Amino acid sequence: MEVTFIRHTSVDVPPGVCYGQSDVPLRDSFEQEAAITSENLKTYRPQGRDFDHVYTSPLSRCVRLATYCGYLDAEHDKRIMEINFGDWEMQKFDEISDPRLKEWYTDYMNVPATNGESFAMQYQRVASFLDGLKEKEYAQVAIFAHGGVLICAQLYAGTIKPEEAFSALTPYGGIIQLKI
């Protein structure tokens, strides 16, 4: 199965703010960014047909892009939401006083944010979604999601190694295609 992952466009959040699963607004440049993403997405469609099925994270930044690209009925699935940063959501990383932050910086793969998730927990959630997707009879699927989800999908597909994870962050509005 070919799965096309589309990362949402840029968010209107100050640099350095930990926003994870917070439902944050998109930049005023959304229309321009979405037009580029929508045009680029056309090259990923199978022989000019549409996708067999389209999923989206329920967060508005993904739903809005899916809708702009013509997928008003995309199926929402919470398993493809961004990592949950718990108590750290909407705080600047350099202003978080939680002592667990130091532990998280040392081992973000396994240490969860306070009242949130670790990267490994997010990976398990995304892998569960992809395991279920493999059971479907689809040949071509599109998924509107988040940077962390796209990293998890690449790890799942074996196209990157864990140590390459964050150097493989897809840019806002970017598209990757994987065989699952």
Can you put this structure into words, describing what you see?
Helix content is 31%, strand content 15%. It is α/β, with parallel strands linked by helices. The protein has a five-stranded mixed β-sheet, sandwiched between helices. The protein has a two-stranded antiparallel ribbon with strand order 2-5. The chain is globular and about 50 Å long. It starts with a strand and ends with a strand. 31% of the residues are buried. The mean pLDDT is 95.
Features:
180 residues, alpha/beta, 5 helices, 31% helix, 15% strand, globular
Strand content: 15-25%
Helix content: 25-40%
Main sheet specs? 5 strands, mixed
The rounded distance between the terminal residues' Cα atoms is 5 Å
Work out the radius of gyration.
16 Å
Average pLDDT, to the nearest integer? Answer: 95
Q: Please give the count of helices.
A: 5
Tertiary shape:
globular
Strands, total number: 7
> What are the segments in which pLDDT stays under 50 over at least 5 consecutive residues?
none
Q: Report the structural category.
A: alpha/beta
- Which strands sit side by side, in order, in the main sheet? 4-3-6-1-7
What letter string, H or E per element, gives the SSE order? EEHEHEEHHEHE
Write the layout of secondary structure elements.
Layout: E1 2-7, E2 17-18, H1 30-41, E3 53-56, H2 60-68, E4 75-76, E5 91-92, H3 100-106, H4 119-134, E6 140-145, H5 147-157, E7 175-179
Parallel strand pairs: 1-6, 3-4, 3-6
Antiparallel strand pairs: 1-7, 2-5
Helix pairs in contact: 4-5
Short description:
31% of the residues lie in helices and 15% in strands.
